[in-house]
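R.M. (postdoc): so does anyone remember the format we settled on? I'll just put the structure tokens first.
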């Protein structure tokens, strides 16, 4: 993967408003805002083709990026991206500055591994029902993972894995679990195939609840 996707050139813009943003998009530019770290927000402009190429990589959304703003290099993460409802076009970006000494909060994708080889799926005819595609985490920028793995190898038929069952990298915590009891969300359930064991199907539904 090219490191170029983690480095983006940006320019400060002073022409603000819906009309200005519309003109930028017609010129193949993406309006953006950089905020956070106790500093004033800064309105930016980026080349659409560079952003569009970068956003095709999953790591773009869960990696500390470098914004080259003139002679300044700013580390930031993507906090929000607005897309055109039907055209392959990025409409707006929100970046949040990161501070190496302060924890950041962001969403990281989940990668489900050993799904095809899990005995409950491969041998017993079960199938994985994913409840979450990503989770919100908190960590220092240096500990930010590109993704988090969920291993299904030992997940039994009818079993549900929750947030508390996921092994997080060192220095990484689940924002949802920090909220206390009742926030241990279901992540994935191995369910019996239709026509399979009714007991296993029932157990899976009870576990998910």
């Amino acid at each position: 993967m090219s490191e170029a996707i983690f480095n983006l050139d940006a320019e400060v813009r002073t022409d603000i408003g819906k009309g200005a943003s519309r003109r930028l998009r017609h010129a193949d530019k993406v309006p953006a805002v950089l905020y956070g770290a106790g500093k004033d927000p800064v309105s930016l402009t980026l080349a659409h083709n560079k952003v569009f190429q970068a956003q095709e990589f999953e790591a773009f959304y869960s990696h500390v990026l470098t914004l080259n703003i003139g002679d300044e290099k700013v580390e930031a993460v993507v906090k929000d991206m607005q897309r055109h409802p039907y055209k392959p076009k990025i409409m707006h970006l929100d970046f949040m500055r990161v501070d190496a000494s302060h924890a950041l909060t962001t969403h990281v994708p989940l990668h489900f591994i050993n799904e095809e080889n899990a005995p409950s799926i491969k041998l017993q005819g079960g199938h994985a029902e994913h409840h979450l595609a990503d989770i919100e985490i908190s960590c220092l920028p240096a500990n930010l993972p590109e993704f988090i793995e969920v291993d299904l190898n030992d997940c039994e038929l009818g079993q549900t894995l929750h947030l508390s069952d996921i092994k997080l990298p060192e220095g990484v915590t689940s924002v949802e679990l920090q909220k206390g009891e009742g926030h241990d969300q279901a992540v994935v359930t191995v369910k019996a195939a239709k026509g399979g064991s009714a007991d296993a199907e029932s157990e899976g539904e009870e576990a998910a609840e």
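R.M.: ...and that's the designed sequence above, right after the tokens. Also worth knowing: Confidence is low (pLDDT under 50) at residues 197-201. The radius of gyration is 21 Å.
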